[in-house]
Structures are given as C-alpha cells and as structure tokens.
Design brief:
SGNH_hydro; N-acetylmuramoyl-L-alanine amidase; alpha/beta; signal; single chain; Rossmann fold; six-stranded mixed sheet; Cell_Envelope_Struct_Comp
Length: about 550
Amino acid sequence: MQFSKKFRFLAASMLALQLTIPVGANAEKKEDHIAPSWVVQADYIALGDSLAHGMNEVGVIGLGYTDFVAQALQQEGLLTSYNKGFAYSGYTTKNVLTDLQDDVEKPVTGFGYTNDRAKLRASIQEAELITLTAGANDLLPILKQSSTTGIDTAAIIKASQEAINNIAAILKEIKKLNPQVQIYVMGYYNSFPYYSEDLQTQFKMLLGIMNASIKTTAEKAGAIFVPTYDVVAKDVTNFLPNPENIHLSEAGYLAVAKQAFLPAIKASSLWDTSSAIQVNVNSSTGATVKWLAATDNEGVTNYHVYLNNTLYSTVDASQTAITLDSLVDNTTYTVAIKAIDAAGNESVQSPTASFTTGSKVQFLDIENHWAREFIQKAAERGMMKGYADGTFRPEQNITRAQAAAMLVRSLGLTTTSKAPFTDIASYDAETQSEIAAAYAHGLVKGADGKFNPSQPITRAQLALMMNRAYEKQFNQTYVVKNQTPFTDITSYNDETKNAITMLYELGIVAGSEGRFSPEAPTKRSHAAKILVNFSERLK
C-alpha cells in the first residue's frame, strides 16, 4: 500500500528519534526537533556496502555517514523518510546491480515507513535523494593481497573496469526508474594509510585514477560525485583508528557526512526556496513582501521577517505578507522569512529575496509626455530604470532582455538557477540573473537554446509574458469572459489571443480603433503603463 508524503512526513517526525534516542530510553514526551520548512520533504534511499550500512572500525554496525546525513536533513524538515536497508556489508557493485535488477525486498532500516519491508525499485521510484557507495569490495581482496605479494596491476585494472561498468549500469537503471532523482556517489578515501610508504604511493595513484573514473561516470549519468579522500586524510588517527580495519570510526562517518555529503546535498535544487517569496516595490521608500506558508510537523506559530540580517518584525502564522516602510530610495535590500514553531525551532532553508527601491527621479525627457505619471511610478517602484544621462527615452523600443528584467522586478522574483540560454553571456550578472528568474518562473521560454535578448519585444510577446505572470501570481489560468475585441489578432494561437484579451479585460491595454498591433515593438512608455497597471491589478 502506498501512502502520501504528508502522512509519511508525520510518521517520520515520530520515528526519526530511533536514530538519536538509545533503545530503552525513557521518553514519555518526545521533544520536537523538526524545523518548519518551505521545501520538498524528500525520501532518501542509501545503497551500497558496509560504509553505507554503518560498519565501524571494530566490525560492529552502528551509525554510518548515511545515518548522520539523514539525521541532519530530518532535523531541518527536509526528509519524509530514510532507509539504508538496501545497503549490506560486503556488497560489491555487482551485488548492488543484481539487487536492482531482481527488485529485491528487504527489511527497512530507518524511519518514515509504515511497513517493515520495502521493495527496491518502488523505493527508488518514490525517492528524491539516493546515495551510492560501492566498489571498494570489488578491489579489497586484490589490494590486501598486494601488501604481501606486490601489486597485481592487471588484476586491479580488470576489477576497476568491472566496478566502473557496474556503477554506470546502476546509475543508468536508477535514472530509468526515476529520471528526476538526485544521486550522490561516494568517492574513495585511502583505506590503507598504515601500509608502507612504497605501497602508499602506488595506492594513492590508484585512488586518483579510480576517483577520476567514478566522477566521470557519475556526471555522465547525471549524478553528483562526492569526494571524501581529503576529509578522511585530515585526521587519519581519529577517523581510521584501527590499522587492521578499513572502516571509519563514528567520528569519521560524521566528518564525511558533514564535510562532504551535506554541503553537496544541500546545494540541490530540491531545496531552492526562491519561488516561495516575492517582493513588490511600491514606491521609492516602500515594498510589499509576500510568501508561501511554511509546513511543520506540529504547526507554525509565527514568522520572523529579517531585513538585511536584522529582525524587522514578527508576525502571526496566519499572516503571509508584510509592507516594509521607511526604506531608503535607490537602495538594495535583502529580506528573509524565518518560520518558527511552538518548540522554538527556526526554519533553516528559508526564502530570501533581494530588491532595490526606486529612485526619486525627474527624467529630463518626460515633462510633457503622456506617460509621465506611469514612467515615474515604474521608476520609483524599481520596475524600470533610466539612463546615465538622466533621460528615460520613452519612445525607444524595449528588448526581450529588458522586458524580462522589468517583469521580474515588478513581481519580486528571484532564483538561484542559471538560465539555459547560450546567447546571454555578454550581459551583466544582474541581467543574466533576471532572465534566469523569468525562465525559472515560467515567464519566458526561448527557442533552440537561445533567448534573443537584444531583439525588440513585440506587443504580443509582452502580453504572453504578462499572462504567464498572472498565472504565476494567482496559481491559476485567467479565463477570458468575452471574445477578443481586436480584429488583428485572429491568426494567433489561443494562448496569445487569451493573453491579449486578458490585458484588455483587466483594463491594462485599450488598443486603437479596434486594433492591438501585435507585431509592433513595445515602446518604453507603453511598457511603463502596462507594468504599472498590471502591478496594481495584482494587489
């Protein structure tokens, strides 16, 4: 039976303490360690050998790096479930691949599951996060023998190639089952730091070649290689205290989790909170911040609003918007929202956005222009900017890059991702970031990997962007009430016609003599009017 993530997240909140509270401990009232969150609560599967299983330096199964990764993510509200039941001591890459091909069912070791057994392929299909640690057991027999008989180069090359091929097959099969899953492949550390200096030199050369091969294989399959060599080498005595055992101590596993895996995992797009917040600049001294409600196992009690890392306000959990007053004009600010629960846990992955207030400006070339009021509002709200010579140039056409930037600023959208366009590299970092935000939030699409940033944007293209912005803002499609009033857009597709009709019905555009002029370039003055009217309809 399959259960929803919401149900399993609640279960995880209760079951996760098995990893942190010793068996037999008296805990009538479990403390709430789960922080509120805005991000995906992931299902985590650990695959591999004894390192994933958690065997320590004396040959006893305990807390391995996967357990410490799960604990840290779960305490931050990032995990729904965790299972290392498919990781077994002594497993080679062939064992892992065979389990995957045979779709084995094994006991669950972890938290967040309602049954005590799980099937491997179904678990992979439901997972957002997988770690893979395999390959050491493919080489260990040969390496151990080398300490007495000398290194058998041919045998090592053969075993290494087989291990790499198996890892590639494992990753390919996982991606076939779940193309979106994030996979992190563990690199090798020096398991034999106590061997002779001569052997050390050869082992290090071998490890370098193996890690480079695994990294290439992982990245080719869309996985992420996680190096551990340097982490373990920092404190060999503490992390590998038993010269007769290749397994890490608990301190070693903790170091690998904290210093290698967690930084890589936390950089995942799974936990990008940029879409959970938006800022609308209202004037040169004010802005409205809106955010999505956070989730928590017990419930959010309030939100802390930070402005430039200083607590600005604390609001009740029912409030998800705030107006920032008395700001300085033409100044960049960073606003962050932290969710707090009844136990005092504060969200870790929290939405943050930067914005710049508008300037109190009087452009030299708009004194008698029909759009003067709209231009000033657009500038004061940070939507549009003038030129260094003090002009606005209202009759100049706007480009696709400028249109994307203007709309992103007006909605307060941000992203940590990069745009996939090959023709924006010559633009400054701010403009590239704004185009990336427009793409990440679905406002622009591009074609054949290009955005054509310098091309003037037509009135029809701008209408499409505005329509997508409406859908983004209200999380629903605008339904037109009447037929389009314009006679010159009948040849366009339904999406474009609906977008233009939406602007008309919302009172944002009026056209001229029953015509919209969809192919005409958009002037800066018209863009100012459209953006100001649109932003006011969104309030």
